[in-house]
Design a protein that fits this description.
- By secondary structure, the chain is an all-alpha fold.
- The chain has one domain.
- About 85% of the residues lie in helices and about 0% in strands.
- The chain is built from 3 helices and no strands.
- The radius of gyration is 23 Å and the shape is rod-shaped.
Length: about 90
Amino acid sequence: MSSDQNSPTQPEERVETRSFRTVTTLDRMTEPIAKELNECLCVIVVNASNCLRMLAANPPNVEGARETAGRTIRASNRAAEAVSRLSTLFIEKK
């Protein structure tokens, strides 16, 4: 067997190595983005709940609800950015 046959430069081996690296990279990068996304979603749920509570109060706390709605929008935008980054990773790695 020649050394050329054992070298990792064979086309099949290069593709396999590249695929492994891609999966490994995606795995490492997906976890922090998923955690960030989950955090954003939790903030959105808590803020929405608080907003409803403030509006149901007698008298309604409209200013507090307005501020909470603003925080909800910011958290939603962060979540959308995380999804966008995740989508970009998968699109670039195809």
